[in-house]
Amino acid sequence: MQSKLSDIELIEQTLAGNQAAYADLVKRHQRFVFTLAMRFAKRREDAEEIAQDCFIKAYRSLASFQKQSKFSTWLYSIVYTTAMTFLRKKRVDTDSIDDENTYIQVESQSSAYDVNNAENKSRSFYLNQAIEQLLPDDAVIITMFYKGEQSLEEIGQALGMEANTVKVKLFRARQRLKEKLERNLKHEAKELI
Amino acid sequence: MNDIEEQLWNYIDGTCTADEQQTISALIAQDEAYRVKYQELLLLNKDFETIELDEPPMAFTYNVMEGIRAEHARQPLKAAPNKRIIIGISIFFLVTLVCLLVYTLANINLPAADIKVTVPVKLKVPELSNYMTKPVVQAFFFIDVILGLFLFDGYLRNKKFAKQA
Question: Is the Cβ pair A26, B55 closer than 8 Å?
Answer without folding.
Answer: no
